[in-house]
């Protein structure tokens, strides 16, 4: 049973989300401010963090920043701000998705399940490996390596790299990458995909794999073959 940590200072929202998640078979943990969120996330087994952006003590952006220093737990932002800059900033820091308030509990549960699927939450899947030169993706263990170095990727970053690795040299339009990483009914901007690709490039470069992902201007991206 996956455990979801609900981090929101609004007790009513926590209650509504808890009920929806428990009905869907999830375990639930709660936190009411940023500092409590960090403590729970580091002390309890958490499979996904549902993180409000506006919270006391520490806001969601700062919580995400601190967690990403030593954790790749999937993060889904809750935001009441209709401001793309805030959402993209969160995604650039390593969040996997976001939902804007007010939201449907059913939609929220579906989005949580989609993120967990991207990190391999389902069991019984056969071992699968993708390799391209010295770059390797282990789909069962959700691990990425370049040479001997492990590259820590979020669920969405892993899904994007998996798509590119599936057909080296093929040019993927941003819309295709949205479908691969998020699903066909998910509305994500091109700017969001660009943010994720920028983070993947940096992580690969830090591991010694430079210039593996090429930009095809006006179209999308491809893995250098």
What does this structure look like?
- The chain is an alpha/beta fold and 225 residues long.
- It folds into two domains: 3-118, Rossmann fold; 129-223, Orthogonal Bundle (Arc Repressor Mutant, subunit A).
- Helix content is 41%, strand content 22%.
- A five-stranded parallel β-sheet has the order 2-1-3-4-5, with helices on both faces. A four-stranded antiparallel β-sheet has the order 6-7-8-9, with helices on one face.
- Strand 1, helix 1 (11-23) and strand 2 form a beta-alpha-beta unit.
- The longest helix has 17 residues, at 190-206.
- The N and C termini lie far apart (40 Å).
Keywords:
225 residues; alpha/beta; Rossmann fold; Arc Repressor Mutant, subunit A; 5-stranded parallel sheet; 4-stranded antiparallel sheet; 12 strands; globular
**Which radius of gyration do the C-alpha atoms yield?**
17 Å
| Average pLDDT metric | 84
CATH architecture of the largest domain: 3-Layer(aba) Sandwich
Helix percent band: 40-55%
At the third CATH level, what is the topology name of the largest domain? Answer: Rossmann fold
Query: How many structural domains?
Result: 2
Strand content: 15-25%
Can you list the strand order of the major beta sheet? 2-1-3-4-5
Based on secondary structure, the structural category is alpha/beta
Question: Considering the protein shown, what is the CATH homologous superfamily of the largest domain?
Answer: Response regulator
Structure, briefly:
By secondary structure, the protein is of the alpha/beta class. 41% of the residues lie in helices and 22% in strands.
């Amino acid at each position: 049973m996956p455990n979801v940590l609900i981090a929101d200072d609004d007790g009513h929202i926590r209650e509504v989300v808890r009920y929806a998640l428990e009905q869907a078979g999830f375990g639930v943990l709660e936190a009411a401010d940023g500092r409590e969120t960090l403590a729970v996330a580091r002390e309890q087994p958490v499979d996904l963090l549902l993180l409000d952006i506006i919270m006391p003590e520490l806001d969601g952006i700062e919580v995400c920043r601190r967690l990403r220093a030593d954790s790749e737990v999937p993060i889904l932002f809750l935001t009441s701000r209709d401001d793309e800059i805030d959402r993209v900033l969160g995604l650039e820091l390593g969040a996997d998705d976001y939902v804007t308030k007010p939201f449907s509990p059913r939609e929220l549960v579906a989005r949580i399940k989609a993120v967990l699927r991207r990190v391999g939450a389902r069991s019984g899947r056969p071992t699968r490996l993708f390799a391209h030169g010295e770059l390797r993706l282990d789909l069962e263990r959700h691990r990425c390596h370049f040479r001997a170095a492990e590259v820590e990727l979020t669920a969405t970053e892993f899904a994007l790299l998996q798509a590119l690795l599936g057909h080296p040299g093929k040019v993927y339009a941003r819309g295709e990458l949205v479908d691969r990483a998020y699903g066909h009914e998910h509305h994500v901007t091109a700017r969001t995909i660009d943010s994720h690709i920028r983070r993947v490039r940096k992580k690969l470069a830090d591991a010694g794999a430079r210039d593996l992902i090429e930009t095809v201007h006006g179209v999308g991206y491809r893995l250098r073959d």
